[in-house]
Design brief:
Structural class: alpha/beta
Low-confidence stretches: none
Number of helices: 14
Strand content: 15-25%
Radius of gyration: 21 Å
Helix content: 40-55%
Shape: globular
CATH topology of the largest domain: Aspartate Aminotransferase, domain 2
CATH architecture of the largest domain: 3-Layer(aba) Sandwich
Mean pLDDT: 98
Distance between the termini: 28 Å
Number of strands: 13
Number of domains: 2
CATH class of the largest domain: Alpha Beta
Order of helices and strands: EHHEHEHHEHEHEHHEEHHHEEHEEEH
Largest sheet: 7 strands, mixed
Length: 343
């Protein structure tokens, strides 16, 4: 049986989600009369402590409508230098929104006030307006690192001092909530908007939530329509998303525990492994292989799937379908294929 550690996006819906989709009460969401979508958005708004929420097809779409709803063409958007919005979202903020990314440095996603200040432009007729500050929690390219609510508050406060709105790419937001023992509102009270994915560790088949105040969500809803995201009888996918949001958050701690066991096991094999806070494990294979593709291919031949993170790094992501026994199996295969065969 294949052990798939490529991403938590490979999670399949539960039987309860499939049943919810089968029995969903539906309507035309563009007219606002899909009762299941309305229930999902109402529940999400309450959970996030926001005035309103919007169901979107994906995290990428959610981030893009959030940017479009809070900027104008020519504006500058501050992004962490390794952020998903900058790296993996096809340049949509520029191609569609006409905005300019400016990157700030961080320590695993957390930027000090001094680091944020260092990229702020002074008022000048020649410079673009800087209107939006974006942060990511958990942070994918920093190995699933989780910001605390205090860190988010510090970053948001300095951004607001400069008149910027604050958006969180919370694709794995509930991993951060579980890892830090916080509540969702501990974070969202410092934000103007948030995007949170339901189809990763929460295991829904489709969809993300965008949340903020009523005016923001109204603008985001119109931007979603412009992007082709005005969906019709969409309760059929909102129903499993609602189930995921209600019932699948607490189980993320199991993914975190398995990731920690994987991290420890790889380190015991003599490998250089990043500290894992949530469900992502990043391993440096440069001491064994010339390129990450060699490491990946060795495991794929034994039905273990992982992904490259760079020429020298690989990423393994635990999820609902990975058990503690699977972690033991992976570690044994790594020992055989990476350690023993290269000694």
């Amino acid at each position: 049986m294949t052990i798939d550690l490529r991403s938590d996006t490979v999670t399949r819906p539960t039987d309860e989600m499939r049943e919810a989709a089968k029995n969903a009460n539906v309507g035309d969401d563009v007219f606002g009369d899909d009762p299941t979508v309305n229930e999902l958005e109402s529940y999400a708004a309450e959970l996030f402590g926001m005035e309103d929420a919007l169901f979107v097809s994906s995290g990428t779409q959610g981030n893009l409508v959030s940017i479009l709803a809070q900027t104008k063409p020519g504006d500058e958007v501050l992004l962490e230098e390794q952020s998903h919005i900058y790296y993996y979202e096809v340049g949509g903020l520029s191609a569609v929104g006409g905005t300019i990314p400016k990157l700030y440095p961080s320590n695993r996603g957390y930027a000090t006030p001094e680091q944020i200040e260092s990229v702020m432009r002074p008022p000048n007729i020649h410079f673009p307006d800087t209107s939006l500050f974006c942060l990511e929690n958990t942070h994918n390219r920093h190995g699933g690192s989780a910001l605390t609510s205090d860190q988010v508050e510090t970053m948001a406060d300095i951004a607001r001092e400069h008149g910027l709105r604050v958006h969180m790419d919370g694709a794995r937001f509930f991993n951060a909530v579980v890892a830090t023992g916080s509540s969702p509102t501990d974070y969202t009270k410092h934000l103007d908007s948030i995007q949170s994915c339901l189809s990763k560790g929460l295991s829904a088949p489709v969809g993300s939530i965008v949340a903020g105040d009523e005016d923001f969500v109204a603008r985001a809803r119109k931007k979603r329509k412009m992007l082709g995201g005005g969906m019709r009888q969409v309760g059929i996918i909102a129903a499993p998303a609602l189930y995921a949001l209600r019932h699948m958050r607490d189980r993320l701690k199991d993914d975190h525990a398995n990731a920690k066991e994987l991290e420890k096991g790889l380190r015991n094999l003599g490998l250089n492994v990043w500290e894992s806070q949530t469900n992502i494990v990043v391993c440096d294979i440069s001491s064994i292989f010339d390129h990450s593709s060699e490491a990946i291919n060795r495991l794929q031949e034994r039905d273990v799937l992982i992904v490259p993170f760079s020429d020298n790094l690989v990423r393994m992501t635990t999820n609902r379908h990975i058990s503690s026994a699977d972690i033991d199996t992976v570690l044994e295969i790594v020992k055989e294929e990476w350690i023993e065969k290269t000694e």
